[in-house]
Design goal:
Radius of gyration: 22 Å
Oligomer: single chain
Shape: elongated
Strand content: 25-35%
CATH superfamily of the largest domain: FAD/NAD(P)-binding domain
Distance between the termini: 16 Å
Length: 348
């Protein structure tokens, strides 16, 4: 049995902790918030008449097992501010409830502190204003979490009105040098499609348009085609709007129609901005504390073999991933440690 610290109580950290505890290890999760879940704790199910495989049901079971496991101790509202290599083990300095203390005798450390949403970093993109008709995808997620599943209600998503049209803008916070994110966040296409399906389910007559740069068909969306999207009543435009203007009768989306080679405008009552996955602002702190590498975008990678150092990275701290891939990565990290334990004791 090994003593293992998992820093971060999101889905990657919890997935790793559960597998490690099942194997008989003593696991301590160090979570800076007052509950598990990370960015996903405010996300809502996107099932309609059928499951759209958003994987949130997997997350509920995961967190239940994490909190109920006898082999897992969870330290909430706790931060790591020091790390020491001792002969044969590691030691972490933590701050909890205004007091400093140490966790000694650690054999392995799993770092899984996740990502930062674009809306938590930036409010100055051209599309964003104080207009309440413009919302972030995370705000719509929150409405879906609280939604009323019965159609007899006039306002199942608590929008305050019944929208006749909605526009989604993809790649907001991704695929941009200006936004310091030249990469694709991988998850926005799938989740916007699922959210659009929910809106279409509750408001069958609603007109839905999604602006995109290119359609990512990863994960559970391998079968998506433009034919299927059109059948679902979703209009896709392959461009990014030039600007957004707030008017009394709605929001005017100004864009260049590449098929016509002309500037067009679209009127909508609700605008949803996608949120790219950005590196956690603590990543530089972790890189210095644990001798890790920051890539060009700010995500972390190991300089040395993790099996040699005993410091493992899990989940979106390494780069964008969807829910299923993040859970899988957390479990894979646990399996690496378990397999090493079978070969040799942890000696650093």
């Amino acid at each position: 049995m090994s003593k293992i610290a998992v820093i971060g109580g999101g889905i990657a950290g919890s997935a790793a902790a559960v597998e490690l505890a099942r194997a008989g290890n003593q696991v301590t999760i160090i979570e800076k918030e007052n509950k598990l879940g990370g960015n996903l704790k405010d996300y809502g199910c996107k099932a309609v008449d059928v499951c759209t495989k958003c994987n949130l049901c997997l997350v509920d079971d995961l967190f239940s097992e994490t909190t109920e496991s006898a082999g897992i101790e969870i330290l909430y509202q706790t931060r790591v501010n020091d790390f020491k290599r001792n002969p044969g083990s590691y030691s972490l300095g933590i701050e909890r409830e205004g007091r400093f203390q140490r966790i000694d005798g650690l054999d392995y450390i799993v770092l899984a502190t996740g990502f930062t949403r674009w809306s938590d970093l930036e409010t100055g993109t051209p599309e964003v204003s104080q207009d309440k008709r413009i919302i972030w995808a995370s705000e719509l997620e929150g409405l879906m979490k609280k939604r009323k599943d019965h159609l007899e209600t006039e306002d199942p998503l608590a929008l305050g009105y019944k929208p006749e049209s909605v526009v989604f803008i993809q790649c907001n916070g991704s695929r941009s040098i200006q936004e310091k994110a030249r990469y694709c966040s991988r998850v926005c296409c799938g989740y916007s499609y699922r959210m659009a399906r929910v809106l279409k389910y509750f408001f069958p007559e609603i007109k839905i348009t999604i602006f995109f740069m290119d359609l990512q068909e990863g994960g559970y969306l391998q079968d998506i085609s433009f034919t299927n999207l059109e059948e679902a009543g979703i209009n896709y435009l392959n461009c990014k709007p030039v600007r957004v203007e707030g008017k009394d009768d709605g929001l005017r989306i100004i864009y260049e129609d590449q098929r016509k080679g002309a500037v067009e405008e679209l009127l909508t009552q609700l605008l949803v901005l996608s949120e790219g996955i950005h590196p956690n602002q603590d990543n530089e702190h972790w890189s210095m504390l644990f001798n890790l590498q920051l890539d060009d975008h700010g995500f972390l990678s190991s300089i040395e073999d993790e099996l040699k150092t005993g410091i493992f990275l899990a989940g979106t701290i390494k780069g964008p991933k969807d829910i299923a891939a993040t859970i899988s990565d957390g479990r894979n990290v646990a399996y690496k440690i378990i397999n090493q334990q079978k070969l040799q004791p942890a000696v650093r």
